[in-house]
Amino acid sequence: MHILVTNDDGVTAPGLLALAQEMRQLGKVTVFAPDRNWSASGHVKTLDRPLRVRETTLADGAAAFTSDGAPSDCVALALLGYIEKVDLVVSGINPYSNIGHDVTYSGTVTAAMEAVIADVAGIAFSLASQDKTSSSTTDFGPAAQVARAVVEKAIHNGLKKDVLLNVNIPYLKTEEIKGYHITRQGLRVYRDALDRRVDPHGRPYYWIGGEMPTGVDEPGTDFGALRAGYVSVTPLQLDLTHYKMVDELKKWNW
Ligand code: MN
Hints:
By secondary structure, the chain is of the alpha/beta class. Helices cover 27% and strands 30% of the residues.
């Protein structure tokens, strides 16, 4: 079992290290992650500039590859042949949850999507830590153990190649996590606010600011599971077709 470990927070992120260390218990691990933070970068394919790959070491001394590309570029580079054949791609552990509409923004999730595009199973892991200011003190230990348990189940049961798993883990102690809920995507509630400021030359500039997003607390959803203290496991596919609308559109006068 050859597991590719990546993330969107950059190769030095503590969540990546915690995930890589747990994955080493399950097989051969190659770490290939971006050289900077690509959070909320979406699904990227870099075609307008060359990509550089560099060897580096993680904080525990293990070898890793890093590149100036996006998370999905790192996965593409690895799966197109930079490293030997990969059986599974795992991404994370992101310090914040990726639920509902977040999956379209998330570099953590789109790295796993890139795996699916290359016909390799992908699993994304995110920790629902809302502690926005001090992710350096976030404890990824319990989440990394959950990640290992999820990957063990995926290896044991086999994961279809057209599916990725989006796993969100509540920020609780191991003994406080109630179990697993298989969920659907819920609804994110964004609280973005436009912050208009003025530069020293009198020209306006803008920040997309506001408060951390929340969500609609519904049973059966990713957000609902996290709220109730469960690990949320959502199977995702890249087919975004709205099937009901297909039939309705056919009734229009084309
Ligand atoms: Mn991130």
